[in-house]
Amino acid sequence: MPLALAAALLLTAATPAPDAVSEVAPGVFVHLGQVAEAARDNAGDTSNWAFVVGERCVAVIDAGGSEATGRALAAAVRARTALPVCALVITHGHPDHLLGLPALAAALAPQRQIAAERLPAAVAARRGTYQALAQRQLELAAPPVIAVPGETVNGEAAIDLGGRRLVLRAWKTAHTDHDLTVFDEASRTLFAGDLLFVGHLPVLDGSLGGWLAQAPALRALGAARTVPGHGPVSSAAGWDAQTAYLAGLRDAVRAALGRHQTLQQAVAGIDAPAGWAMTELYHRRNVTAAYSELEWED
Ligand SMILES: [Zn+2]
Q1: How far is the CA of 193 from the centre of ligand 1 (A)?
Q2: How far apart are the first and last CA of the chain?
Q3: Distance from the alpha carbon of residue 194 to the mean position of ligand 1, in angstroms
């Protein structure tokens, strides 16, 4: 067997298909993206997405990080149900959750596209950066089209899928300034977006204080299972591990500030804790973001 073919077969064996889903509860289908940075090899399949099937229609949650993920997601929905898609919900505007939207919307024609109120502005502010980043990482010929949902939520809203209600909730600034969760009342499944990371180091792009302050309320929703934005479906233990990291980050940065360390000294001196993937890429960024936020604390 030629080596290249052997390598390709190995890769196929190790990597789940881009449209692979598992039914984690009746009518609740989840695709786990790879815990990796977006690249041509993974075609931007680096975040989780899901869909929930009611008696009348389907809701899709997040769109993946590329045109390819949007198409795979649409195929996965159509392999399971012919019901119309009444809603596409985007948990937040990071490109790994958003860039599949145009392909997905073209294939499934969702009746509504919904996100938190501040998402359109947040994406508009970084549109060029996100396009350049995706073009480079995915090795695309042209920058990807970025579209955002036209309908927004501030506070809570409900979607009726027919015999099944989803509760959407917009949160105060935490992972980002526009995080939205989806709670399926029938299965008590919480789709947390990037308000929860499991195994993949949490990434701070909003407010460390806000994230820690709202973690108890997220945990107290009493979900039977939580689908994180990255990593496997989790129990309450996922929240505890994440809170331990975020609280440890806060305490270490506060201690560095207490010793009048510069940002550079804090970044160099605060090590990433063991047990998380993607620390080389994100831990220093998290220390930097936390330092900037806590510097002005009383
Ligand atoms: Zn994110």
Answers
A1: 7
A2: 66
A3: 5
Residue 199 CB partners (closer than 8 Å, separation 6+): 35, 230, 231, 232, 276, 277
Q: Give me the CATH number covering residue 197.
A: 3.60.15.10
3-state secondary structure of 159: strand
Predicted confidence (pLDDT) at residue 1 exceeds the cutoff of 60: no
Q: Total domain count for the chain?
A: 1
Residue 112: give the domain boundaries.
13-235
How far apart, in whole angstroms, are the C-alpha atoms of residue 260 and residue 265? 9
Rounded to the nearest angstrom, the distance between the alpha carbon of 274 and the centre of ligand 1 is 21
Residue 14 has pLDDT above 60, yes or no: no
Residue 46: inside a domain, yes or no? yes
Q: Is residue 264 part of a domain?
A: no
In a domain, residue 285? The reply is no
Is 202 contained in some domain?
yes
> Per-residue pLDDT for 4 more than 70?
no
- Distance, CA 278 to ligand 1 centroid (Å)? 14
Alpha carbon of 96 to ligand 1 centroid (Å): 7
Per-residue pLDDT tens digits for 68-103: 999 999 999 999 999 999 999 999 999 999 999 999
Q: Write down the pLDDT at residue 48.
A: 98
Whether the pTM exceeds 0.90: the reply is yes
Q: How far is the CA of 97 from the centre of ligand 1 (A)?
A: 7
pLDDT (tens digit per residue) in 187-198: 999 999 999 999
* d(CA 280, ligand 1 centre) in Å: 17
Q: Which pLDDT tens digit goes with each residue over 58-70? A: 999 999 999 999 9
Residue the block writes with tokens 């009383």: 298
Counting residues of the chain whose pLDDT is more than 90, the rounded percentage is: 92
CA distance 151 to 89: 10
